[in-house]
Amino acid sequence: MKSDSDGKMFGPLKGCQICSSKNLETIISLGHQPVVQQHLTPEKLREPETAFPLNWCRCNACGLVQIDYIIDPKLVFHPEYPYQTGMTKMLVDNFRELASLVIGKYNLSNKDLVIDIGSNDGTLLQGFKAHNIRVLGVEPTKVAHIARKNGIPTVNDFFSEKTAKEILEKYGQAKIITATNMFAHVNNLQSFLHGVSTLLSDGGVFITESQYLMDIVEKLEFDTIYHEHLRFYSVKSLVDLHRRFGFTVVDAERISSSGGSIRVFAMKGKKESSPVIQSLIEAEEKAGLHDRKTFEEFRKRLISVKHKILQLLVDLKNKGNRIVGIGAPARASTILGFFNLDSNLLDYICERKGSLKIGLYTPGTHVPIVDEEKLFQDQPEYAMLLSWHIADGLIKKLKENGFRGKFIVPLPEPKIVG
Predict the structure, then answer these.
(1) Boundaries of every domain in the chain
(2) ∠385-39-69 over CA atoms, to 5°?
(3) Element housing 294 (H / E)
(4) CB atoms within 10 A of CB 332
């Protein structure tokens, strides 16, 4: 495994990302996949495209589920990274709720500082700023400039122990540090968590949100597996990880965000934990979340669904139907890549007006991404929901806006909704 000047590790893993055990077992290989947010311009379609191994593995020593190849983060979170949190209503609503919860739970005032790591366009921090609380974002991509235009001061850099010391000198310690939908992305946990410890005030709280392994397994959310997501947390693994770096997980809750996530509250030092923590771990044990057989069954279910969705789409195409995709989130790239869904099966993919992906092509599968207005003009017979985890809301909205075709929901079992 290699490392860059900041100590970020990349390349094939030599051991577990938490306990360093070499006893890793592959659950399923999703083949070689490109970086999910490296969408292609028309000119790039004629150039070579790099793909990397994508294997979902489990550590037989500590139970952490993870991928076994880490891409250089400068390639994954490149300057032109097109993702914007504010484009997803589900996340906007979730972050508003989180800000309100934290402000009330910890009695925040305008003297307190809230830092959001991986702050993207500043959507989460807007909820704190609205209550006159000091905020600071840390974001490595050019989306940081959007946050600044929206009035959110943002450090345009990757977060590390070095970055934390620079922030401390200029802004002081934070009462709240958040890392939502990015804590599983960190490929140098030691530098990252030492940085959090440096910035967090005594009695301060470190809050993370990550897609929850329980939901992934129960709902067959294999599309959450891509190179941004290095680890797939259970509560048990999160408790272990925090303990190793001098933190205590004091509370946690399951939330619906991103198809099912776990929100965790941690503090520096040895603290008393809520009984909720033990209840969640017991529920994981009861569900077999730490058993090998559970993941063997997951693999069998996934292979079965792959065959079913391909058969469904081929049958519909053979009958002359037009099929388009709805939404091009990062998780869509895993669905397209593993199911081999290219422009022979999907005519195009629709994104909401304002998306930075419109006019580009999906990585690996090269399906054109267009403005959603084309859906209502063309009225294709079928629309496949690539953001299937929010299918109910999407179907309702698209019908209200005038789409008259049928919907394909690919997971956890392929179905057609009239």
Answers:
(1) 85-290, 297-417
(2) 90
(3) helix 292-318
(4) 26
